Amino acid sequence: MDRFSILFLIATVVTVVSGIRDDFLRLPSENVEGTRWAVLVAGSKDYYNYRHQADVCHAYQILKKGGLKDENIIVFMYDDIAYNESNPHPGVIINHPLGSDVYKGVPKDYVGEDINPHNFYAVLLANKSALTGTGSGKVLDSGPNDHVFIYYTDHGGAGVLGMPSKPYIFASDLNDALKKKHASGTYKSLVFYVESCEAGSMFDGLLPEDHNIYVMAASDTGESSWVTYCPFQDPRLPPEYDVCIGDLFSVSWLEDSDVHNLRTETIHQQCEVVKKKTIEPLIRDGTHIVQFGDTGLSNQSLFVYMGTDPANDNNTFVDKHSLVPPRKAVSQRDADLIHFWEKFRRAPEGSSRKAEAEKQLREVTSHRMHIDHSVKHIGKLLFGIEKGSKMLNSVRPAGLPVVDDWDCLKTLCEMSVRTFETHCGSLSEYGMKHMRSFANLCNAGIRKEQMAEASAQACVSIPDNPWSSLHAGFSA
Protein backbone atom coordinates (compact mmCIF):
# COMPACT_ATOMS: atom_id res chain seq x y z
CA MET A 1 0.00 0.00 0.00
CA ASP A 2 1.51 3.34 -1.05
CA ARG A 3 1.87 6.36 1.23
CA PHE A 4 -1.16 8.14 -0.27
CA SER A 5 -3.39 5.10 0.33
CA ILE A 6 -2.22 4.81 3.94
CA LEU A 7 -2.89 8.52 4.61
CA PHE A 8 -6.32 8.22 2.99
CA LEU A 9 -7.15 5.15 5.11
CA ILE A 10 -6.06 6.93 8.30
CA ALA A 11 -8.15 9.98 7.42
CA THR A 12 -11.15 7.77 6.71
CA VAL A 13 -10.80 5.90 10.02
CA VAL A 14 -10.43 9.18 11.94
CA THR A 15 -13.56 10.54 10.26
CA VAL A 16 -15.57 7.39 11.02
CA VAL A 17 -14.38 7.22 14.62
CA SER A 18 -15.14 10.91 15.09
CA GLY A 19 -18.62 10.33 13.77
CA ILE A 20 -19.10 7.33 16.05
CA ARG A 21 -17.99 9.38 19.05
CA ASP A 22 -20.42 12.14 18.17
CA ASP A 23 -23.33 9.74 17.87
CA PHE A 24 -22.56 6.84 20.20
CA LEU A 25 -19.55 7.25 22.45
CA ARG A 26 -20.34 10.56 24.11
CA LEU A 27 -20.15 10.57 27.87
CA PRO A 28 -23.42 11.11 29.77
CA SER A 29 -22.28 14.60 30.72
CA GLU A 30 -21.89 15.44 27.04
CA ASN A 31 -25.30 14.08 26.09
CA VAL A 32 -27.32 16.23 28.47
CA GLU A 33 -29.03 19.17 26.83
CA GLY A 34 -31.36 21.62 28.48
CA THR A 35 -31.81 22.31 32.18
CA ARG A 36 -32.27 19.96 35.11
CA TRP A 37 -35.31 20.64 37.28
CA ALA A 38 -36.45 19.04 40.53
CA VAL A 39 -39.59 19.11 42.67
CA LEU A 40 -39.19 17.67 46.19
CA VAL A 41 -42.27 17.01 48.31
CA ALA A 42 -42.52 16.00 51.98
CA GLY A 43 -46.23 15.36 52.36
CA SER A 44 -46.46 15.27 56.17
CA LYS A 45 -46.11 17.39 59.28
CA ASP A 46 -45.48 16.78 63.03
CA TYR A 47 -42.33 15.53 64.72
CA TYR A 48 -43.21 11.82 64.64
CA ASN A 49 -43.02 12.13 60.83
CA TYR A 50 -39.46 13.50 61.08
CA ARG A 51 -38.19 11.13 58.40
CA HIS A 52 -40.13 12.61 55.47
CA GLN A 53 -38.61 16.07 55.78
CA ALA A 54 -35.22 14.46 56.48
CA ASP A 55 -35.51 12.50 53.22
CA VAL A 56 -36.38 15.64 51.24
CA CYS A 57 -33.58 17.69 52.80
CA HIS A 58 -31.12 14.90 51.97
CA ALA A 59 -32.37 14.83 48.37
CA TYR A 60 -31.83 18.58 48.12
CA GLN A 61 -28.21 18.25 49.26
CA ILE A 62 -27.52 15.60 46.59
CA LEU A 63 -29.02 17.75 43.85
CA LYS A 64 -27.18 20.83 45.06
CA LYS A 65 -23.85 19.00 45.01
CA GLY A 66 -24.82 17.69 41.59
CA GLY A 67 -24.88 21.20 40.22
CA LEU A 68 -28.57 22.04 40.17
CA LYS A 69 -29.33 25.64 40.99
CA ASP A 70 -31.78 26.70 43.69
CA GLU A 71 -33.86 28.42 41.04
CA ASN A 72 -34.47 24.99 39.50
CA ILE A 73 -35.18 23.07 42.74
CA ILE A 74 -38.66 23.50 44.22
CA VAL A 75 -39.16 22.28 47.79
CA PHE A 76 -42.46 21.48 49.53
CA MET A 77 -41.79 20.98 53.24
CA TYR A 78 -43.96 21.89 56.24
CA ASP A 79 -40.82 23.01 58.09
CA ASP A 80 -41.93 22.14 61.61
CA ILE A 81 -39.14 19.64 62.41
CA ALA A 82 -35.83 21.52 62.53
CA TYR A 83 -36.90 23.84 65.34
CA ASN A 84 -39.49 21.58 66.91
CA GLU A 85 -39.33 21.50 70.72
CA SER A 86 -38.80 17.72 70.51
CA ASN A 87 -35.73 18.04 68.28
CA PRO A 88 -32.64 17.43 70.47
CA HIS A 89 -30.52 19.54 68.10
CA PRO A 90 -32.48 22.67 67.12
CA GLY A 91 -31.88 23.76 63.55
CA VAL A 92 -30.43 20.38 62.56
CA ILE A 93 -32.04 17.48 60.67
CA ILE A 94 -30.22 14.20 60.05
CA ASN A 95 -31.08 11.28 57.76
CA HIS A 96 -28.54 8.74 59.04
CA PRO A 97 -27.47 7.82 62.60
CA LEU A 98 -23.96 9.10 61.86
CA GLY A 99 -25.02 11.65 59.29
CA SER A 100 -24.42 15.36 59.15
CA ASP A 101 -27.02 18.12 59.01
CA VAL A 102 -29.09 17.99 55.80
CA TYR A 103 -31.33 20.96 56.68
CA LYS A 104 -28.81 23.75 56.15
CA GLY A 105 -29.44 25.77 52.99
CA VAL A 106 -32.67 24.04 51.94
CA PRO A 107 -35.02 26.50 50.18
CA LYS A 108 -38.37 27.09 51.90
CA ASP A 109 -40.45 27.45 48.75
CA TYR A 110 -43.77 26.12 50.06
CA VAL A 111 -44.22 25.54 53.78
CA GLY A 112 -47.06 25.08 56.26
CA GLU A 113 -50.57 25.27 54.85
CA ASP A 114 -49.22 26.18 51.40
CA ILE A 115 -48.42 22.48 50.90
CA ASN A 116 -51.62 21.21 49.32
CA PRO A 117 -52.66 19.42 46.11
CA HIS A 118 -53.79 22.68 44.47
CA ASN A 119 -50.36 24.30 44.76
CA PHE A 120 -48.58 21.07 43.85
CA TYR A 121 -50.46 20.84 40.54
CA ALA A 122 -49.95 24.55 39.90
CA VAL A 123 -46.20 24.09 40.34
CA LEU A 124 -46.09 21.02 38.06
CA LEU A 125 -47.98 22.84 35.31
CA ALA A 126 -46.08 26.13 35.78
CA ASN A 127 -49.37 27.91 36.45
CA LYS A 128 -48.29 30.82 38.64
CA SER A 129 -51.74 32.41 38.57
CA ALA A 130 -53.22 29.34 40.24
CA LEU A 131 -50.87 29.44 43.25
CA THR A 132 -52.32 30.37 46.63
CA GLY A 133 -50.68 31.37 49.90
CA THR A 134 -47.33 33.00 50.55
CA GLY A 135 -44.87 30.62 48.88
CA SER A 136 -41.87 31.60 46.78
CA GLY A 137 -43.86 31.45 43.55
CA LYS A 138 -41.33 29.12 41.93
CA VAL A 139 -42.91 26.75 39.41
CA LEU A 140 -41.69 24.00 37.11
CA ASP A 141 -41.06 26.41 34.24
CA SER A 142 -39.21 23.81 32.18
CA GLY A 143 -38.67 23.78 28.44
CA PRO A 144 -38.87 21.10 25.73
CA ASN A 145 -35.22 20.03 26.16
CA ASP A 146 -35.27 19.94 29.96
CA HIS A 147 -35.10 16.96 32.33
CA VAL A 148 -37.34 16.81 35.39
CA PHE A 149 -36.92 14.86 38.63
CA ILE A 150 -39.82 14.64 41.10
CA TYR A 151 -39.55 13.03 44.52
CA TYR A 152 -42.47 12.55 46.91
CA THR A 153 -42.33 11.00 50.39
CA ASP A 154 -45.18 10.55 52.89
CA HIS A 155 -48.07 8.26 53.80
CA GLY A 156 -50.34 6.77 51.17
CA GLY A 157 -53.31 4.52 50.57
CA ALA A 158 -55.13 2.95 47.66
CA GLY A 159 -55.22 5.66 45.00
CA VAL A 160 -54.21 8.50 47.33
CA LEU A 161 -51.14 10.29 48.68
CA GLY A 162 -51.16 12.37 51.83
CA MET A 163 -50.70 16.11 52.19
CA PRO A 164 -50.24 18.03 55.47
CA SER A 165 -53.00 20.40 54.42
CA LYS A 166 -55.94 18.23 53.37
CA PRO A 167 -57.40 16.97 51.06
CA TYR A 168 -55.46 14.00 49.68
CA ILE A 169 -53.81 13.76 46.26
CA PHE A 170 -56.00 11.44 44.18
CA ALA A 171 -54.34 9.21 41.58
CA SER A 172 -56.62 10.42 38.82
CA ASP A 173 -55.76 14.07 39.47
CA LEU A 174 -52.03 13.37 39.65
CA ASN A 175 -52.00 11.44 36.37
CA ASP A 176 -54.15 14.11 34.71
CA ALA A 177 -51.58 16.71 35.76
CA LEU A 178 -48.73 14.61 34.36
CA LYS A 179 -50.61 14.15 31.09
CA LYS A 180 -51.19 17.90 30.86
CA LYS A 181 -47.50 18.49 31.49
CA HIS A 182 -46.69 16.12 28.63
CA ALA A 183 -49.20 17.79 26.34
CA SER A 184 -47.59 21.18 27.02
CA GLY A 185 -44.31 19.92 25.53
CA THR A 186 -42.33 21.42 28.39
CA TYR A 187 -39.93 18.59 29.21
CA LYS A 188 -37.82 16.05 27.38
CA SER A 189 -38.00 13.38 30.07
CA LEU A 190 -39.38 13.11 33.59
CA VAL A 191 -38.40 10.74 36.42
CA PHE A 192 -40.63 10.38 39.49
CA TYR A 193 -39.64 8.55 42.71
CA VAL A 194 -42.54 7.89 45.10
CA GLU A 195 -42.20 6.78 48.74
CA SER A 196 -45.47 5.77 50.40
CA CYS A 197 -47.59 2.78 51.26
CA GLU A 198 -49.39 1.47 48.17
CA ALA A 199 -47.43 3.89 45.99
CA GLY A 200 -47.97 1.67 42.96
CA SER A 201 -51.73 2.23 43.14
CA MET A 202 -51.14 5.83 42.07
CA PHE A 203 -49.99 4.73 38.60
CA ASP A 204 -51.08 1.14 37.96
CA GLY A 205 -53.29 1.12 34.86
CA LEU A 206 -53.22 4.93 34.71
CA LEU A 207 -49.84 6.23 33.51
CA PRO A 208 -49.23 5.99 29.73
CA GLU A 209 -46.02 4.38 28.52
CA ASP A 210 -45.42 6.92 25.74
CA HIS A 211 -45.19 10.18 27.73
CA ASN A 212 -41.45 10.07 28.50
CA ILE A 213 -42.28 9.63 32.19
CA TYR A 214 -40.66 6.96 34.35
CA VAL A 215 -41.89 6.13 37.88
CA MET A 216 -40.15 4.13 40.59
CA ALA A 217 -42.49 3.41 43.51
CA ALA A 218 -41.57 2.10 46.95
CA SER A 219 -44.44 -0.39 47.18
CA ASP A 220 -46.99 -2.11 45.01
CA THR A 221 -50.76 -1.93 45.33
CA GLY A 222 -51.83 -3.39 48.67
CA GLU A 223 -48.32 -3.22 50.17
CA SER A 224 -46.74 -1.11 52.90
CA SER A 225 -43.57 0.91 52.61
CA TRP A 226 -41.08 0.82 55.46
CA VAL A 227 -39.14 3.06 57.80
CA THR A 228 -35.59 2.70 59.05
CA TYR A 229 -33.03 4.21 61.43
CA CYS A 230 -35.38 3.87 64.40
CA PRO A 231 -34.37 3.92 68.10
CA PHE A 232 -34.22 0.12 68.47
CA GLN A 233 -32.44 -0.66 65.19
CA ASP A 234 -28.80 -1.03 64.21
CA PRO A 235 -26.93 1.09 63.41
CA ARG A 236 -27.94 2.79 66.64
CA LEU A 237 -29.30 6.30 66.63
CA PRO A 238 -27.73 8.85 68.96
CA PRO A 239 -29.51 8.20 72.29
CA GLU A 240 -31.22 11.58 72.33
CA TYR A 241 -33.40 10.67 69.31
CA ASP A 242 -36.78 9.04 69.96
CA VAL A 243 -38.05 8.98 66.38
CA CYS A 244 -37.33 7.17 63.09
CA ILE A 245 -35.23 9.42 60.85
CA GLY A 246 -35.46 7.72 57.44
CA ASP A 247 -37.63 5.72 55.07
CA LEU A 248 -36.10 2.49 53.79
CA PHE A 249 -36.74 3.01 50.06
CA SER A 250 -35.69 6.64 50.29
CA VAL A 251 -32.44 6.26 52.19
CA SER A 252 -31.55 3.40 49.84
CA TRP A 253 -31.53 5.58 46.73
CA LEU A 254 -30.28 8.63 48.61
CA GLU A 255 -27.27 6.88 50.11
CA ASP A 256 -26.55 5.17 46.79
CA SER A 257 -26.50 8.62 45.16
CA ASP A 258 -24.19 9.91 47.89
CA VAL A 259 -21.33 7.57 47.06
CA HIS A 260 -21.55 6.71 43.37
CA ASN A 261 -20.50 8.46 40.19
CA LEU A 262 -23.88 9.40 38.77
CA ARG A 263 -22.31 10.08 35.38
CA THR A 264 -22.01 6.33 34.86
CA GLU A 265 -24.66 4.79 37.13
CA THR A 266 -28.04 4.28 35.48
CA ILE A 267 -31.49 4.58 37.00
CA HIS A 268 -31.92 0.86 36.39
CA GLN A 269 -28.78 0.09 38.35
CA GLN A 270 -29.99 2.22 41.23
CA CYS A 271 -33.35 0.47 41.14
CA GLU A 272 -31.61 -2.90 41.36
CA VAL A 273 -29.57 -1.71 44.34
CA VAL A 274 -32.73 -0.65 46.13
CA LYS A 275 -34.50 -3.94 45.36
CA LYS A 276 -31.69 -6.38 46.04
CA LYS A 277 -29.93 -4.79 48.98
CA THR A 278 -32.74 -3.36 51.04
CA ILE A 279 -36.43 -3.86 50.49
CA GLU A 280 -37.19 -7.34 49.17
CA PRO A 281 -34.70 -9.39 51.27
CA LEU A 282 -35.93 -7.75 54.46
CA ILE A 283 -39.69 -7.83 54.10
CA ARG A 284 -41.17 -11.31 54.37
CA ASP A 285 -44.57 -9.96 53.37
CA GLY A 286 -43.14 -9.35 49.89
CA THR A 287 -43.07 -5.59 49.39
CA HIS A 288 -41.81 -4.85 45.89
CA ILE A 289 -40.23 -1.90 44.15
CA VAL A 290 -42.41 -1.30 41.09
CA GLN A 291 -41.91 0.70 37.90
CA PHE A 292 -44.39 2.40 35.59
CA GLY A 293 -44.51 4.48 32.42
CA ASP A 294 -41.59 4.62 30.00
CA THR A 295 -39.30 2.09 31.66
CA GLY A 296 -36.77 2.61 28.85
CA LEU A 297 -35.76 5.83 30.57
CA SER A 298 -34.25 3.72 33.35
CA ASN A 299 -31.31 3.03 31.04
CA GLN A 300 -30.33 6.67 31.27
CA SER A 301 -27.59 7.94 33.53
CA LEU A 302 -28.70 9.40 36.86
CA PHE A 303 -26.52 12.36 35.92
CA VAL A 304 -29.20 13.44 33.45
CA TYR A 305 -31.51 14.28 36.37
CA MET A 306 -29.36 14.70 39.48
CA GLY A 307 -25.99 15.84 38.19
CA THR A 308 -23.14 14.37 40.23
CA ASP A 309 -20.89 15.28 43.12
CA PRO A 310 -17.43 15.93 41.56
CA ALA A 311 -15.90 14.14 44.56
CA ASN A 312 -17.43 10.89 43.25
CA ASP A 313 -16.30 11.21 39.63
CA ASN A 314 -13.59 8.56 40.02
CA ASN A 315 -15.86 6.08 41.79
CA THR A 316 -16.93 2.98 39.92
CA PHE A 317 -20.44 1.60 40.28
CA VAL A 318 -20.65 -1.77 42.01
CA ASP A 319 -23.77 -3.61 43.06
CA LYS A 320 -23.48 -2.98 46.77
CA HIS A 321 -24.90 -0.46 49.15
CA SER A 322 -23.65 1.46 52.17
CA LEU A 323 -26.95 1.07 54.02
CA VAL A 324 -26.67 -1.29 56.97
CA PRO A 325 -29.92 -3.29 56.90
CA PRO A 326 -31.94 -2.90 60.09
CA ARG A 327 -32.78 -5.95 62.19
CA LYS A 328 -36.50 -5.31 61.82
CA ALA A 329 -38.51 -3.35 59.31
CA VAL A 330 -41.30 -1.11 60.54
CA SER A 331 -44.37 -0.21 58.52
CA GLN A 332 -44.81 3.45 57.67
CA ARG A 333 -48.15 3.32 59.44
CA ASP A 334 -46.59 2.28 62.75
CA ALA A 335 -43.70 4.74 62.93
CA ASP A 336 -45.67 7.19 65.07
CA LEU A 337 -46.22 4.47 67.69
CA ILE A 338 -42.46 4.10 68.06
CA HIS A 339 -42.10 7.79 68.84
CA PHE A 340 -44.90 7.85 71.40
CA TRP A 341 -43.71 4.63 73.03
CA GLU A 342 -40.16 5.97 73.29
CA LYS A 343 -41.43 9.18 74.88
CA PHE A 344 -43.34 7.12 77.44
CA ARG A 345 -40.49 4.68 78.08
CA ARG A 346 -37.90 7.41 78.61
CA ALA A 347 -39.96 9.73 80.80
CA PRO A 348 -39.09 9.58 84.54
CA GLU A 349 -41.49 7.51 86.63
CA GLY A 350 -44.12 9.61 88.40
CA SER A 351 -43.33 12.73 86.37
CA SER A 352 -45.78 14.92 84.47
CA ARG A 353 -43.88 13.98 81.29
CA LYS A 354 -44.67 10.31 81.98
CA ALA A 355 -48.34 11.06 82.47
CA GLU A 356 -48.54 13.16 79.30
CA ALA A 357 -46.68 10.54 77.26
CA GLU A 358 -49.02 7.82 78.54
CA LYS A 359 -52.02 9.97 77.59
CA GLN A 360 -50.67 10.45 74.04
CA LEU A 361 -49.98 6.75 73.65
CA ARG A 362 -53.44 5.80 74.86
CA GLU A 363 -55.08 8.34 72.54
CA VAL A 364 -53.28 7.18 69.42
CA THR A 365 -53.89 3.47 70.09
CA SER A 366 -57.53 4.14 70.99
CA HIS A 367 -58.01 6.09 67.77
CA ARG A 368 -56.58 3.24 65.71
CA MET A 369 -58.89 0.71 67.34
CA HIS A 370 -61.86 3.02 66.79
CA ILE A 371 -61.11 3.48 63.07
CA ASP A 372 -60.50 -0.21 62.43
CA HIS A 373 -63.63 -1.27 64.33
CA SER A 374 -65.81 1.38 62.66
CA VAL A 375 -64.81 0.48 59.10
CA LYS A 376 -65.22 -3.23 59.81
CA HIS A 377 -68.65 -2.61 61.36
CA ILE A 378 -69.77 -0.56 58.34
CA GLY A 379 -68.72 -3.41 56.04
CA LYS A 380 -70.88 -5.84 58.00
CA LEU A 381 -73.85 -3.46 57.95
CA LEU A 382 -73.61 -2.92 54.19
CA PHE A 383 -72.65 -6.41 52.99
CA GLY A 384 -73.44 -8.77 55.83
CA ILE A 385 -71.30 -10.52 58.42
CA GLU A 386 -69.93 -13.14 56.03
CA LYS A 387 -69.08 -10.89 53.08
CA GLY A 388 -68.26 -7.57 54.77
CA SER A 389 -64.52 -8.00 55.27
CA LYS A 390 -63.98 -9.61 51.85
CA MET A 391 -65.85 -6.84 50.04
CA LEU A 392 -63.94 -4.04 51.75
CA ASN A 393 -60.46 -5.54 51.44
CA SER A 394 -60.50 -7.09 47.98
CA VAL A 395 -57.56 -6.04 45.76
CA ARG A 396 -57.88 -5.85 41.99
CA PRO A 397 -55.37 -7.75 39.79
CA ALA A 398 -52.08 -6.13 38.82
CA GLY A 399 -52.33 -3.85 35.81
CA LEU A 400 -55.76 -2.56 36.74
CA PRO A 401 -56.39 0.74 38.54
CA VAL A 402 -58.16 0.80 41.90
CA VAL A 403 -61.36 1.52 39.93
CA ASP A 404 -62.21 1.93 36.26
CA ASP A 405 -64.29 5.07 36.77
CA TRP A 406 -62.14 7.53 38.68
CA ASP A 407 -64.81 10.22 38.45
CA CYS A 408 -67.10 7.82 40.28
CA LEU A 409 -64.43 7.10 42.88
CA LYS A 410 -63.61 10.74 43.48
CA THR A 411 -67.25 11.68 43.80
CA LEU A 412 -68.53 8.71 45.77
CA CYS A 413 -65.33 8.10 47.72
CA GLU A 414 -65.23 11.77 48.65
CA MET A 415 -68.82 11.55 49.81
CA SER A 416 -68.13 8.28 51.60
CA VAL A 417 -65.03 9.54 53.38
CA ARG A 418 -66.73 12.79 54.33
CA THR A 419 -69.80 10.90 55.48
CA PHE A 420 -67.67 8.50 57.50
CA GLU A 421 -65.62 11.29 59.08
CA THR A 422 -68.75 13.30 59.91
CA HIS A 423 -70.05 10.40 61.99
CA CYS A 424 -66.84 8.66 63.08
CA GLY A 425 -64.13 11.33 63.19
CA SER A 426 -60.93 11.90 61.21
CA LEU A 427 -59.28 9.01 59.41
CA SER A 428 -55.84 10.54 60.10
CA GLU A 429 -52.71 9.17 58.43
CA TYR A 430 -53.30 5.73 59.92
CA GLY A 431 -56.80 5.58 58.44
CA MET A 432 -55.41 5.89 54.92
CA LYS A 433 -54.99 2.11 55.08
CA HIS A 434 -58.78 1.90 54.67
CA MET A 435 -58.98 3.94 51.47
CA ARG A 436 -59.31 0.70 49.53
CA SER A 437 -62.46 -0.02 51.51
CA PHE A 438 -63.97 3.30 50.45
CA ALA A 439 -62.94 2.65 46.84
CA ASN A 440 -64.63 -0.74 46.98
CA LEU A 441 -67.83 0.94 48.15
CA CYS A 442 -67.83 2.75 44.82
CA ASN A 443 -67.17 -0.48 42.96
CA ALA A 444 -70.12 -2.08 44.77
CA GLY A 445 -72.50 0.77 43.90
CA ILE A 446 -73.07 1.96 47.48
CA ARG A 447 -74.96 5.26 47.56
CA LYS A 448 -74.29 8.20 49.84
CA GLU A 449 -77.52 7.61 51.75
CA GLN A 450 -76.56 4.00 52.49
CA MET A 451 -73.11 5.09 53.67
CA ALA A 452 -74.59 7.76 55.95
CA GLU A 453 -76.98 5.29 57.55
CA ALA A 454 -74.27 2.67 58.10
CA SER A 455 -71.83 5.24 59.52
CA ALA A 456 -74.43 6.60 61.91
CA GLN A 457 -75.14 3.10 63.20
CA ALA A 458 -71.44 2.16 63.47
CA CYS A 459 -70.32 5.35 65.25
CA VAL A 460 -72.58 6.56 68.02
CA SER A 461 -70.03 9.27 68.92
CA ILE A 462 -66.63 10.67 67.90
CA PRO A 463 -63.81 9.97 70.37
CA ASP A 464 -62.71 13.08 72.25
CA ASN A 465 -59.04 13.23 71.27
CA PRO A 466 -56.95 15.20 68.75
CA TRP A 467 -56.55 12.22 66.42
CA SER A 468 -60.27 12.02 65.73
CA SER A 469 -60.85 15.75 65.51
CA LEU A 470 -61.89 17.27 62.18
CA HIS A 471 -60.40 20.67 62.97
CA ALA A 472 -57.98 20.27 60.08
CA GLY A 473 -60.76 19.56 57.59
CA PHE A 474 -61.92 16.51 55.68
CA SER A 475 -59.48 14.03 54.16
CA ALA A 476 -61.27 14.01 50.82
UniProtKB/TrEMBL annotation:
InterPro entries: AE, Legum_prodom, Legumain_prodom_sf, Peptidase_C13. GO terms for molecular function: cysteine-type endopeptidase activity. This is Legumain prodomain domain-containing protein. Keywords: Disulfide bond, Glycoprotein, Hydrolase, Protease, Signal, Thiol protease. One of its GO terms (cellular component) is vacuole. Belongs to the peptidase C13 family. Pfam families: Legum_prodom, Peptidase_C13. Residues 359-459 form the Legumain prodomain domain. The active site is at H155, C197 (nucleophile). Residues 1-19 form the signal peptide. The keyword Disulfide bond applies. One of its GO terms (biological process) is proteolysis involved in protein catabolic process. It comes from the Eukaryota. The keyword Protease applies.
